[in-house]
Design goal:
Residues 297-367 form the ACT domain. Pfam families: ACT (PF01842), PDH_C (PF20463), PDH_N (PF02153). Residues 3-292 form the Prephenate/arogenate dehydrogenase domain. This protein is α/β, with parallel strands linked by helices and 367 residues long. It has three domains: 4-174, Rossmann fold, CATH 3.40.50.720; 179-283, 6-phosphogluconate dehydrogenase C-terminal like domain (6-phosphogluconate dehydrogenase C-terminal fold, Orthogonal Bundle); 296-366, VC0802-like (2-Layer Sandwich). It is 48% helix and 17% strand. It contains 15 helices and twelve strands. The strands form two sheets. It has an eight-stranded mixed beta sheet with strand order 3-2-1-4-5-6-7-8. A four-stranded antiparallel beta sheet has the order 10-11-9-12, covered by helices on one side. Helix 8 (176-205) packs across helix 12. The structure holds 1,4-dihydronicotinamide adenine dinucleotide and 3-(4-hydroxy-phenyl)pyruvic acid. The site of 1,4-dihydronicotinamide adenine dinucleotide has 29 residues, from helix 1, helix 4, strand 6 and helix 11. 3-(4-hydroxy-phenyl)pyruvic acid is lined by residues 98, 123-127, 187, 225, 228, 291-293.
Length: 367
């Protein structure tokens, strides 16, 4: 598609959307803006955008598609500013914010003027932020929730999907309140719990320094999302307030229940608590990307000698397999260490296991 695309917020999500739009529509011109000069410069340098503008008006009034990818409180403010501008009559506006109810309400003045605003939320991302973390394939196979509202014609929703087809995401239309409930349960509330677990460990680490060292394995994995942008998560909590307060109430009741079971030594009910959770967890789909994207981990039993990591990453590099993270979870003298390499997709992980088995006799485990 030809036209001008204006991306507001050139961080992880804005940059990734810009890359996906460029990939599918090489003839489109992509203009960006950000309050961070560093993110603008980096986006220009990486070719994520063709040009930048220093005012919202300069980019918005010329645009055929405006994508907002800033923290949700900023989204609400920018939507109010856009409503006072002379935009193109057939402009499409969408956002990528993690909450939708307050955002869609903030778009009402635009919608009342006849401007097509379609709320959006690509349900993939990472704990990383900024222009340097943006990736073309970030949203591949992920859900991409859209909240168009009744007044938006179907053909405009289709036009937005066409613009965003380079994401290779699975679009799903929901209402804003349904969106906030669903993401509250599977993304926002788990984030609060992850950060709460980290804070608890931090408190105990004041008593015993061993805590940090012991937390380096599984604890680190289950709390990965606590390393995300605090500003972004502050806004999510403020904008999904009612849903999160309800979930907190339910959670506290559940914890009270478990506390009672432990106090009473109720072995049967404790077993049922874990068994019920295991049944639901084991039944979750493994192939779709969910709200909290997985990183596909490959465990490799490696001998503990200097150069082993570059040997293995060398094999992967030879075959063009890119990795997102690498770490060793166990190295003791004379005992094999375990190298954990994370990949963006399961396909890459399988290719990597095959590649390593062909080049070495190290055992690989797809956990
Ligand atoms: N990080 C993630 O995994 C996901 C984030 N989201 C949502 O996407 C949005 C963007 O998040 P990220 O890209 O992760 O954050 P980020 O921190 O990587 O990028 C946000 C960018 O917006 C810029 N910015 C902030 N206020 C601005 C303003 N008033 N005008 C122009 N630029 C401004 C920042 O300087 C930054 O470069 C948020 O609403 C977030 O809730 C949605 C899906 C996943
Ligand atoms: O890092 C992770 O796994 C995330 O949790 C990413 C994420 C963050 C915010 C969203 O609205 C959706 C996905």
């Amino acid at each position: 598609m030809k036209g001008k695309v204006f991306v507001i917020g050139l961080g992880l999500i804005g940059g990734s959307l810009a890359k996906a739009v460029r990939h599918a529509h090489p003839e489109a011109v992509i203009i960006g803006t950000d309050i961070s000069e560093k993110n603008i410069q980096l986006s220009m340098l990486l070719g994520t955008i063709d040009d930048s503008v220093s005012t919202l008006e300069a980019g918005a009034c010329e645009a055929d598609l405006i994508l907002l990818a800033v923290p949700v409180n900023e989204t609400v403010k920018i939507l109010a500013q856009l409503a006072d501008m002379n935009l193109k009559s057939d402009v499409l506006i969408s956002d990528a914010g993690s909450t939708k109810d307050t955002v869609v309400k903030a778009a009402k003045p635009l919608i009342d003027k006849g401007v097509a605003f379609i709320g959006g939320h690509p349900m993939a991302g990472s704990h990383k932020s900024g222009a340097g973390a943006a990736k073309l394939h970030l949203f591949e196979h992920a859900f991409y929730l859209l909240t168009p509202g009744d007044s938006i014609e179907e053909k405009k929703v289709e036009r937005l999907k066409e613009w965003l087809k380079g994401t290779r995401a699975n679009f799903l239309v929901v209402t804003p309140s349904m969106h906030d409930k669903l993401t509250g349960v599977v993304s926002h509330f788990p984030h609060i719990v992850a950060s709460g677990l980290v804070k608890q460990a931090e408190n105990y680490s004041k008593e015993n320094k061993l805590i940090s060292r012991l937390a380096a394995g599984g604890f680190r994995d289950i709390t990965r999302i606590a390393s995300s942008s605090p500003e972004m998560w502050r806004d999510i909590l403020l904008h999904n307030r009612d849903v999160l307060l309800e979930l907190m109430k339910d959670w506290l009741a559940e914890m009270e229940h478990v506390k009672g079971l432990v106090e009473n030594g109720d072995s049967e009910e404790i077993l049922r608590f874990f068994a019920d959770a295991k049944v639901f967890r084991d039944d979750l789909p493994t192939h779709a990307k969910g709200a909290i994207p997985a990183f596909y981990d490959l465990y490799i039993d490696i001998p503990d000698y200097a150069g082993i990591i570059s040997e293995i990453t060398g094999y992967l590099a030879q075959e063009g397999i890119s990795i997102t993270n690498i770490r060793i979870i166990e190295t003791r003298e004379e005992i094999y260490g375990v190298l954990v390499i994370s990949f963006q997709t399961d396909v890459d992980r399988i290719k990597a296991a095959d590649c390593i088995s062909r080049h070495s006799d190290y055992e690989t485990i797809l956990a």
